[in-house]
Design brief:
Strand content: 5-15%
Distance between the termini: 42 Å
Bound molecules: heme C
Helix content: 25-40%
Radius of gyration: 18 Å
Strand order of the largest sheet: 2-3-4
Shape: globular
Number of strands: 9
Length: 331
Amino acid sequence: MRIGHGGIRPTLAIGAALVLVFGATGCARQEAPAPKAAAPAAPAAAPAPAAAAVEPVLDGPDKLTHGRYLVETVAGCGNCHTPHLADGSLDPSKKFAGAFVIKEPVFEAYARNITPDMETGIGAWSEDDIVNALHNAQRPDGAFMGPPMSFGWYRGMSDTDAHAIAAYIKSVPAIRNEVPKSTYSFPLTGYGPKITSVADVPKTDQVKYGEYLAGPVGHCMDCHTTYVMGVIDMKQLGHGGNVYTKPFIYDWAAVSANITSDKAAGLGDWSDDEIKKAITTGVSRNGRPLLPFMPYGLYAKMEPSDLNAIVAYLRSLPPLGAGPPPAAEAK
Ligand code: HEC
Ligand code: HEC
Protein backbone atom coordinates (compact mmCIF):
# COMPACT_ATOMS: atom_id res chain seq x y z
CA MET A 1 0.00 0.00 0.00
CA ARG A 2 1.36 3.36 -1.01
CA ILE A 3 0.11 6.37 0.84
CA GLY A 4 0.36 10.07 0.37
CA HIS A 5 -0.81 12.59 2.89
CA GLY A 6 -4.23 13.73 1.79
CA GLY A 7 -5.37 13.13 5.34
CA ILE A 8 -3.32 11.65 8.12
CA ARG A 9 -5.16 8.94 9.93
CA PRO A 10 -3.72 6.08 11.87
CA THR A 11 -5.11 2.92 10.35
CA LEU A 12 -6.48 0.79 13.09
CA ALA A 13 -7.77 -2.10 11.08
CA ILE A 14 -6.54 -4.57 13.61
CA GLY A 15 -7.85 -7.55 15.49
CA ALA A 16 -10.70 -6.89 17.87
CA ALA A 17 -8.72 -7.88 20.90
CA LEU A 18 -5.97 -5.51 19.97
CA VAL A 19 -8.47 -2.74 19.33
CA LEU A 20 -9.75 -3.21 22.83
CA VAL A 21 -6.42 -2.63 24.41
CA PHE A 22 -5.03 -0.18 21.94
CA GLY A 23 -6.00 2.51 24.38
CA ALA A 24 -2.93 1.56 26.26
CA THR A 25 -0.80 2.93 23.48
CA GLY A 26 1.40 5.55 24.97
CA CYS A 27 0.96 3.79 28.25
CA ALA A 28 -1.35 2.01 30.58
CA ARG A 29 -4.81 3.40 30.36
CA GLN A 30 -7.80 2.63 32.47
CA GLU A 31 -11.42 3.43 31.75
CA ALA A 32 -12.31 5.09 35.04
CA PRO A 33 -10.60 8.41 35.62
CA ALA A 34 -8.71 8.58 38.87
CA PRO A 35 -9.83 11.89 40.34
CA LYS A 36 -7.04 12.24 42.82
CA ALA A 37 -4.56 11.86 40.04
CA ALA A 38 -6.26 14.34 37.74
CA ALA A 39 -4.81 17.25 39.66
CA PRO A 40 -1.43 16.03 40.74
CA ALA A 41 -0.08 18.20 43.50
CA ALA A 42 3.54 17.88 42.53
CA PRO A 43 5.41 15.35 40.48
CA ALA A 44 8.15 13.38 42.21
CA ALA A 45 10.54 15.85 40.73
CA ALA A 46 9.73 19.12 39.03
CA PRO A 47 10.94 19.47 35.46
CA ALA A 48 14.05 21.51 34.87
CA PRO A 49 13.53 25.23 35.38
CA ALA A 50 12.22 27.03 32.34
CA ALA A 51 15.22 29.32 32.26
CA ALA A 52 17.74 26.51 31.79
CA ALA A 53 19.51 26.94 28.47
CA VAL A 54 18.77 24.11 26.07
CA GLU A 55 21.18 23.02 23.38
CA PRO A 56 19.10 22.43 20.27
CA VAL A 57 19.73 19.32 18.20
CA LEU A 58 20.41 20.67 14.74
CA ASP A 59 18.59 19.22 11.76
CA GLY A 60 20.45 18.75 8.50
CA PRO A 61 20.03 17.37 5.00
CA ASP A 62 22.12 14.23 5.41
CA LYS A 63 20.43 11.08 6.61
CA LEU A 64 22.23 10.62 9.93
CA THR A 65 21.92 14.24 11.02
CA HIS A 66 18.24 14.28 10.14
CA GLY A 67 17.64 10.95 11.88
CA ARG A 68 19.43 12.06 15.00
CA TYR A 69 17.39 15.23 14.99
CA LEU A 70 14.06 13.39 14.77
CA VAL A 71 14.92 10.69 17.32
CA GLU A 72 16.41 13.12 19.84
CA THR A 73 13.55 15.62 19.56
CA VAL A 74 10.04 15.22 18.22
CA ALA A 75 9.98 11.44 17.67
CA GLY A 76 11.17 10.90 21.23
CA CYS A 77 11.86 7.16 20.85
CA GLY A 78 13.96 7.33 24.01
CA ASN A 79 10.94 8.26 26.07
CA CYS A 80 10.06 4.56 26.03
CA HIS A 81 13.29 2.88 24.98
CA THR A 82 15.60 4.65 27.48
CA PRO A 83 15.04 4.17 31.22
CA HIS A 84 13.75 7.21 33.09
CA LEU A 85 15.56 8.56 36.13
CA ALA A 86 13.70 9.77 39.19
CA ASP A 87 13.95 13.41 38.10
CA GLY A 88 12.11 12.67 34.86
CA SER A 89 15.20 12.76 32.65
CA LEU A 90 16.38 9.86 30.49
CA ASP A 91 19.34 7.81 31.71
CA PRO A 92 22.24 8.94 29.48
CA SER A 93 24.21 5.77 30.21
CA LYS A 94 21.47 3.47 28.91
CA LYS A 95 20.31 5.27 25.79
CA PHE A 96 17.89 3.11 23.78
CA ALA A 97 18.84 -0.02 25.74
CA GLY A 98 15.29 -0.64 27.03
CA ALA A 99 13.31 -1.51 29.00
CA PHE A 100 10.40 -0.12 30.74
CA VAL A 101 7.49 -2.42 31.14
CA ILE A 102 3.79 -1.78 30.88
CA LYS A 103 1.63 -4.25 32.66
CA GLU A 104 -1.98 -4.47 31.65
CA PRO A 105 -4.41 -7.28 32.29
CA VAL A 106 -4.03 -8.35 28.66
CA PHE A 107 -0.37 -7.66 28.03
CA GLU A 108 3.00 -7.08 29.53
CA ALA A 109 5.02 -5.01 27.09
CA TYR A 110 8.73 -4.32 27.29
CA ALA A 111 10.25 -1.50 25.26
CA ARG A 112 13.11 -3.41 23.70
CA ASN A 113 16.81 -2.79 23.44
CA ILE A 114 17.07 -0.98 20.08
CA THR A 115 20.82 -0.36 20.24
CA PRO A 116 22.95 -2.28 17.70
CA ASP A 117 24.08 -4.86 20.27
CA MET A 118 24.22 -8.15 18.35
CA GLU A 119 22.82 -10.35 21.08
CA THR A 120 20.49 -8.25 23.18
CA GLY A 121 19.69 -5.45 20.72
CA ILE A 122 18.88 -5.15 17.02
CA GLY A 123 22.43 -5.25 15.67
CA ALA A 124 21.42 -7.87 13.12
CA TRP A 125 18.59 -5.75 11.68
CA SER A 126 19.11 -3.84 8.44
CA GLU A 127 17.94 -0.29 7.93
CA ASP A 128 15.06 -1.67 5.87
CA ASP A 129 14.12 -4.01 8.72
CA ILE A 130 13.77 -1.05 11.08
CA VAL A 131 11.75 0.91 8.52
CA ASN A 132 9.48 -2.10 8.10
CA ALA A 133 9.10 -2.30 11.88
CA LEU A 134 7.95 1.33 11.97
CA HIS A 135 5.63 1.06 8.98
CA ASN A 136 4.24 -2.41 9.50
CA ALA A 137 4.85 -3.30 13.16
CA GLN A 138 6.81 -6.31 11.97
CA ARG A 139 10.07 -7.91 12.99
CA PRO A 140 12.42 -9.30 10.32
CA ASP A 141 10.94 -12.78 10.80
CA GLY A 142 7.50 -11.36 9.99
CA ALA A 143 6.15 -11.52 13.56
CA PHE A 144 3.88 -8.61 14.42
CA MET A 145 4.42 -6.30 17.37
CA GLY A 146 1.77 -4.83 19.62
CA PRO A 147 1.01 -1.80 21.79
CA PRO A 148 1.92 0.58 23.30
CA MET A 149 4.32 1.70 20.55
CA SER A 150 2.24 3.95 18.28
CA PHE A 151 2.43 1.71 15.21
CA GLY A 152 -0.93 2.97 13.96
CA TRP A 153 0.61 6.43 13.55
CA TYR A 154 4.07 5.40 12.35
CA ARG A 155 2.41 3.92 9.26
CA GLY A 156 2.21 7.49 8.00
CA MET A 157 5.90 8.31 8.52
CA SER A 158 7.61 9.27 5.26
CA ASP A 159 10.19 6.91 3.80
CA THR A 160 12.75 9.69 4.12
CA ASP A 161 12.13 10.14 7.83
CA ALA A 162 11.78 6.44 8.61
CA HIS A 163 15.07 5.67 6.86
CA ALA A 164 16.80 8.57 8.61
CA ILE A 165 15.56 7.34 11.99
CA ALA A 166 16.61 3.78 11.20
CA ALA A 167 20.07 4.88 10.07
CA TYR A 168 20.57 6.88 13.24
CA ILE A 169 19.35 4.08 15.51
CA LYS A 170 21.88 1.81 13.80
CA SER A 171 24.66 4.30 14.57
CA VAL A 172 24.20 4.68 18.33
CA PRO A 173 26.57 2.85 20.68
CA ALA A 174 25.66 -0.77 21.29
CA ILE A 175 24.67 -1.48 24.88
CA ARG A 176 24.31 -4.96 26.25
CA ASN A 177 21.02 -5.21 28.09
CA GLU A 178 18.80 -8.25 28.06
CA VAL A 179 15.13 -7.28 27.81
CA PRO A 180 12.38 -9.79 28.49
CA LYS A 181 9.96 -10.56 25.67
CA SER A 182 6.57 -8.87 25.69
CA THR A 183 3.58 -11.08 26.17
CA TYR A 184 0.12 -10.37 24.77
CA SER A 185 -2.90 -12.46 25.56
CA PHE A 186 -4.46 -11.72 22.16
CA PRO A 187 -3.22 -12.34 18.63
CA LEU A 188 -1.08 -9.64 17.03
CA THR A 189 -2.20 -9.19 13.44
CA GLY A 190 -0.72 -5.88 12.36
CA TYR A 191 -2.32 -2.52 11.79
CA GLY A 192 -3.60 -2.70 8.24
CA PRO A 193 -2.47 -3.41 4.67
CA LYS A 194 1.28 -3.56 4.19
CA ILE A 195 2.88 -0.16 3.71
CA THR A 196 5.56 -0.11 1.03
CA SER A 197 6.13 3.60 0.51
CA VAL A 198 5.11 6.89 2.11
CA ALA A 199 5.61 10.23 0.37
CA ASP A 200 7.36 13.21 1.97
CA VAL A 201 5.21 15.89 3.54
CA PRO A 202 6.37 19.29 2.29
CA LYS A 203 7.19 21.91 4.92
CA THR A 204 5.61 24.60 2.77
CA ASP A 205 2.16 24.04 4.25
CA GLN A 206 2.82 24.77 7.92
CA VAL A 207 -0.40 23.30 9.29
CA LYS A 208 -0.09 20.11 7.24
CA TYR A 209 3.52 19.70 8.29
CA GLY A 210 2.55 20.30 11.91
CA GLU A 211 -0.14 17.64 11.54
CA TYR A 212 2.49 15.27 10.23
CA LEU A 213 4.91 15.99 13.08
CA ALA A 214 2.21 15.73 15.76
CA GLY A 215 0.92 12.47 14.27
CA PRO A 216 3.13 10.05 12.32
CA VAL A 217 6.44 11.37 13.67
CA GLY A 218 5.79 12.49 17.23
CA HIS A 219 2.57 10.63 18.09
CA CYS A 220 1.38 13.59 20.22
CA MET A 221 -2.08 12.82 18.87
CA ASP A 222 -1.99 9.27 20.12
CA CYS A 223 -1.82 10.34 23.77
CA HIS A 224 -4.01 13.38 23.19
CA THR A 225 -6.84 11.83 21.16
CA THR A 226 -9.56 10.24 23.22
CA TYR A 227 -9.86 6.49 23.36
CA VAL A 228 -13.36 5.12 23.81
CA MET A 229 -13.53 1.56 25.08
CA GLY A 230 -9.93 1.13 24.05
CA VAL A 231 -10.43 2.37 20.48
CA ILE A 232 -9.04 5.70 19.31
CA ASP A 233 -11.91 8.05 18.43
CA MET A 234 -10.70 10.30 15.62
CA LYS A 235 -13.75 12.52 16.10
CA GLN A 236 -12.15 13.49 19.40
CA LEU A 237 -8.82 14.50 17.94
CA GLY A 238 -6.87 16.33 20.65
CA HIS A 239 -9.68 16.04 23.16
CA GLY A 240 -7.49 14.21 25.70
CA GLY A 241 -8.87 12.64 28.83
CA ASN A 242 -6.88 9.41 28.58
CA VAL A 243 -5.68 8.23 31.96
CA TYR A 244 -2.20 6.77 32.22
CA THR A 245 -1.64 4.99 35.49
CA LYS A 246 1.85 4.50 36.89
CA PRO A 247 3.68 4.86 33.59
CA PHE A 248 7.39 4.06 33.37
CA ILE A 249 8.91 4.18 36.88
CA TYR A 250 6.37 6.62 38.25
CA ASP A 251 3.82 6.20 40.95
CA TRP A 252 1.23 8.68 39.72
CA ALA A 253 -1.43 8.74 37.06
CA ALA A 254 -1.57 11.42 34.37
CA VAL A 255 -4.57 12.52 32.33
CA SER A 256 -3.79 13.68 28.79
CA ALA A 257 -4.82 17.28 28.30
CA ASN A 258 -7.36 18.75 25.90
CA ILE A 259 -5.14 20.45 23.30
CA THR A 260 -7.90 21.46 20.88
CA SER A 261 -8.63 25.12 20.15
CA ASP A 262 -11.50 25.22 22.65
CA LYS A 263 -11.17 28.46 24.59
CA ALA A 264 -12.30 27.09 27.95
CA ALA A 265 -11.18 23.47 27.98
CA GLY A 266 -8.35 23.56 25.47
CA LEU A 267 -5.59 25.87 24.28
CA GLY A 268 -7.80 28.40 22.44
CA ASP A 269 -7.01 31.22 24.85
CA TRP A 270 -3.32 30.45 25.23
CA SER A 271 -0.66 32.49 23.45
CA ASP A 272 1.75 30.67 21.14
CA ASP A 273 4.50 31.18 23.71
CA GLU A 274 2.40 29.63 26.47
CA ILE A 275 1.78 26.54 24.33
CA LYS A 276 5.46 26.27 23.43
CA LYS A 277 6.46 26.68 27.07
CA ALA A 278 4.20 23.80 28.10
CA ILE A 279 5.57 21.54 25.35
CA THR A 280 9.22 22.34 25.90
CA THR A 281 9.50 22.95 29.64
CA GLY A 282 6.61 20.98 31.11
CA VAL A 283 5.07 23.97 32.80
CA SER A 284 1.39 24.66 32.20
CA ARG A 285 -0.06 28.10 31.54
CA ASN A 286 -0.95 28.52 35.21
CA GLY A 287 2.55 27.60 36.34
CA ARG A 288 1.69 24.04 37.31
CA PRO A 289 4.54 21.60 36.63
CA LEU A 290 3.27 18.93 34.24
CA LEU A 291 4.01 15.31 35.03
CA PRO A 292 7.13 14.07 33.28
CA PHE A 293 5.35 11.71 30.93
CA MET A 294 5.71 13.68 27.71
CA PRO A 295 9.40 14.02 26.85
CA TYR A 296 9.55 17.81 27.40
CA GLY A 297 13.36 17.75 27.53
CA LEU A 298 13.52 16.28 24.03
CA TYR A 299 10.85 18.58 22.62
CA ALA A 300 12.87 21.53 23.96
CA LYS A 301 15.55 20.71 21.40
CA MET A 302 13.22 20.98 18.40
CA GLU A 303 13.91 23.48 15.63
CA PRO A 304 11.74 26.60 16.17
CA SER A 305 10.14 26.10 12.74
CA ASP A 306 8.97 22.59 13.70
CA LEU A 307 7.60 23.78 17.02
CA ASN A 308 5.81 26.60 15.21
CA ALA A 309 4.30 24.09 12.77
CA ILE A 310 2.99 21.95 15.64
CA VAL A 311 1.46 24.99 17.34
CA ALA A 312 -0.13 26.09 14.05
CA TYR A 313 -1.62 22.62 13.67
CA LEU A 314 -2.95 22.54 17.25
CA ARG A 315 -4.63 25.88 16.60
CA SER A 316 -6.39 24.30 13.62
CA LEU A 317 -7.97 21.51 15.67
CA PRO A 318 -11.73 21.97 15.94
CA PRO A 319 -12.64 23.08 19.48
CA LEU A 320 -13.94 20.32 21.69
CA GLY A 321 -15.22 21.42 25.05
CA ALA A 322 -17.80 19.77 27.19
CA GLY A 323 -18.83 16.20 26.59
CA PRO A 324 -17.46 12.84 27.45
CA PRO A 325 -14.87 12.08 28.42
CA PRO A 326 -14.04 14.94 30.77
CA ALA A 327 -11.08 17.06 29.86
CA ALA A 328 -8.11 16.96 32.15
CA GLU A 329 -8.48 19.24 35.14
CA ALA A 330 -6.29 21.89 36.60
CA LYS A 331 -6.10 24.22 33.67
C1 HEC B 1 5.13 4.34 23.77
C2 HEC B 1 6.40 3.69 23.96
C3 HEC B 1 7.30 3.52 22.74
C4 HEC B 1 7.76 4.51 21.88
C5 HEC B 1 7.50 6.02 21.94
C6 HEC B 1 8.58 3.85 20.90
N1 HEC B 1 8.61 2.51 21.15
FE1 HEC B 1 9.59 1.10 20.04
N2 HEC B 1 8.79 -0.39 21.18
C7 HEC B 1 8.01 -0.20 22.32
C8 HEC B 1 7.61 -1.51 22.83
C9 HEC B 1 6.77 -1.78 24.08
C10 HEC B 1 8.16 -2.48 21.95
C11 HEC B 1 7.99 -4.01 22.00
C12 HEC B 1 6.73 -4.39 21.22
C13 HEC B 1 6.47 -5.88 21.27
O1 HEC B 1 7.17 -6.59 21.98
O2 HEC B 1 5.55 -6.37 20.53
C14 HEC B 1 8.90 -1.74 20.93
C15 HEC B 1 9.62 -2.33 19.90
C16 HEC B 1 10.44 -1.65 19.02
C17 HEC B 1 11.28 -2.29 18.02
C18 HEC B 1 11.44 -3.79 17.82
C19 HEC B 1 12.66 -4.27 18.59
C20 HEC B 1 12.78 -5.77 18.71
O3 HEC B 1 13.84 -6.25 19.17
O4 HEC B 1 11.85 -6.49 18.36
C21 HEC B 1 11.92 -1.29 17.34
C22 HEC B 1 12.93 -1.44 16.21
C23 HEC B 1 11.48 -0.03 17.92
N3 HEC B 1 10.59 -0.30 18.93
C24 HEC B 1 11.92 1.21 17.50
C25 HEC B 1 11.36 2.43 17.93
C26 HEC B 1 11.68 3.71 17.33
C27 HEC B 1 12.68 3.93 16.23
C28 HEC B 1 10.90 4.64 17.99
C29 HEC B 1 10.78 6.12 17.72
C30 HEC B 1 10.37 6.47 16.37
C31 HEC B 1 10.12 3.92 19.00
N4 HEC B 1 10.43 2.59 18.92
C32 HEC B 1 9.23 4.52 19.87
C33 HEC B 1 7.66 1.02 22.87
C34 HEC B 1 7.85 2.27 22.27
C1 HEC C 1 3.10 9.73 26.15
C2 HEC C 1 1.88 10.51 26.01
C3 HEC C 1 2.03 11.95 25.52
C4 HEC C 1 2.69 12.38 24.39
C5 HEC C 1 3.50 11.59 23.40
C6 HEC C 1 2.46 13.80 24.32
N1 HEC C 1 1.70 14.21 25.38
FE1 HEC C 1 1.16 16.13 25.77
N2 HEC C 1 0.48 15.57 27.60
C7 HEC C 1 0.32 14.25 28.03
C8 HEC C 1 -0.23 14.26 29.38
C9 HEC C 1 -0.56 13.02 30.20
C10 HEC C 1 -0.39 15.63 29.75
C11 HEC C 1 -0.91 16.16 31.07
C12 HEC C 1 0.21 16.18 32.09
C13 HEC C 1 -0.27 16.73 33.43
O1 HEC C 1 -1.44 17.12 33.53
O2 HEC C 1 0.56 16.81 34.36
C14 HEC C 1 0.06 16.42 28.60
C15 HEC C 1 0.06 17.82 28.54
C16 HEC C 1 0.25 18.57 27.39
C17 HEC C 1 0.11 20.01 27.29
C18 HEC C 1 -0.26 20.95 28.45
C19 HEC C 1 -1.72 21.24 28.45
C20 HEC C 1 -2.17 21.92 29.74
O3 HEC C 1 -3.39 22.11 29.86
O4 HEC C 1 -1.34 22.22 30.60
C21 HEC C 1 0.33 20.34 25.97
C22 HEC C 1 0.24 21.73 25.35
C23 HEC C 1 0.67 19.13 25.27
N3 HEC C 1 0.61 18.08 26.16
C24 HEC C 1 0.98 19.02 23.91
C25 HEC C 1 1.65 17.94 23.35
C26 HEC C 1 2.33 17.95 22.09
C27 HEC C 1 2.33 19.10 21.10
C28 HEC C 1 2.94 16.72 21.95
C29 HEC C 1 3.82 16.22 20.84
C30 HEC C 1 4.96 17.08 20.44
C31 HEC C 1 2.58 15.93 23.12
N4 HEC C 1 1.81 16.71 23.94
C32 HEC C 1 2.96 14.61 23.31
C33 HEC C 1 0.67 13.12 27.30
C34 HEC C 1 1.42 13.11 26.14
